[in-house]
Amino acid sequence: MGSRVWPDKKLATTQNKITRLESGDGGIELRDLEALLAVYGVDDPAKVAVVRDLIAATSQRGRWRGTRAAHAEHDRKFVDLTEDAVIVRETAVEEVPVLLQCEAYMRASQSSSAAAAIAAQRQHQELVLEANAAQVYAMLSESCVRRVRGSTAVMREQVDHLITLSGRPNVHIHLIPFAATARLPIRFECFTLLRLACPQLFGDFTEYVDLPFVRMAGEPVYAPARADAFQRLWVAVADVALNTARTRHFLRAIARELG
User: Fold this and answer.
1) What string of DSSP letters covers 69-133?
2) How far apart are CA 155 and CA 108, in angstroms?
3) Distance from C-alpha of 163 to C-alpha of 194, rounded to nearest angstrom
């Protein structure tokens, strides 16, 4: 196939280009895209138009300028996918997930409280929770609200913020009390499952795809394992977590303790 798309290139070069395209490590030029469509026999004008629109959208100059430029390089694919997701499922230990952090907690949690980084996180929250109104499900260990970041005043603000967020129809927060962790059949670890809608354009594809990410040294890393394994982990964690109503009651009790 590569020789038909790039007849003037060496075999090793074409194999490398195909590998990079399949892994998403590089973009594709319009002429190469059109050659690939011809090789695969895609000549339906509607389908060709959709693919051209997709390549135009993903190659916008300045995509990571302005406020978004504050996101670290290693975070950008994760940020993009989260903002496109229709469902976000997160588990957290020790630290409240970024999507659910109040501004005071952000400042206390970051090694640098740079205004640009906080503005980027706030913008990310607005896109996911408000503009796109993704359904967000969070399973939080009790340690997330017990471990003090900054001060007790910061933690009180953060707990109040969680209570407020839990009142939104698209935000579902579940707390896992310390006493319940002993009932977990697996090791409780931090991971995120992103569900992205798949448009029905090119045949009988599924309606969605789930992408699992795990946190390693604070960085979101795509997990090449099947999403099924993380689905099972999610079910196991959800089985011992408090429901949303009991979680709000628990959080209000913590808020009173914090004064």
Assistant:
1) GGS-GGGHHHHHHHHH-SEEEEEESSS--GGG--HHHHHHHSSS--HHHHHHHHHHHIIIIIIS-
2) 10
3) 23
Query: Which of helix, strand or coil describes residue 256?
Result: helix
CB 196 within 8 A of CB 208: yes
pLDDT in tens, 145-190: 999 999 999 999 999 999 999 999 999 999 999 988 778 766 677 8
pLDDT in tens, 99-149: 999 999 999 987 555 888 899 999 999 999 998 899 999 999 999 999 999
Residue with tokens 């009932």: 183
DSSP string, 8-75: TS-HHHHHHHHHHHHHTSS---HHHHHHHHHHTT---HHHHHHHHHHHHHHT-TTTT-GGGGGS-GGG
What's the pTM value of the predicted model, to 2 decimals? 0.74
| Residue 69, both tokens | 């430029």
